[in-house]
Amino acid sequence: NFSMITEYVSSTGRIKHSRETGLRPVNQRRMAKAVRRAVGMGLMPSVHKHPEMLEDEAAKMAARRLGMGRFGL
């Protein structure tokens, strides 16, 4: 299930650590294998946004919320 698998993938496309997922080692390996298979079959994107791009988007969204507009004036 695509929506369930995306819970275990970070916004940058990396598989989350078991500390974050709370899965036992056996289930963590199963989940990681399912993610890799989904990427291999083309069900999930293999290329995600770069962390710097995510930070820029977050800053833009914050500026919009504060009413600074496009140029920050």
Question: Any overview of this molecule?
Answer:
The protein is mainly alpha-helical. The chain has four helices and no strands. The chain has helices at 2-6, 18-21, 25-41, 51-65.
Q: What portion of residues is helical?
A: 55-70%
Number of discrete helical segments: 4
Sequence of secondary-structure elements = HHHH
- Structural class, please? mainly alpha
Output mean pLDDT: 83
Task: Sketch the major β-sheet.
Answer: none
Shape summary: elongated
Percent strand:
under 5%
Radius of gyration: 16 Å
User: Could you list the spans in which at least 5 consecutive residues all have pLDDT below 50?
Assistant: none
Question: What brief labels describe this structure?
Answer:
single chain; 73 residues; mainly alpha; 4 helices; elongated
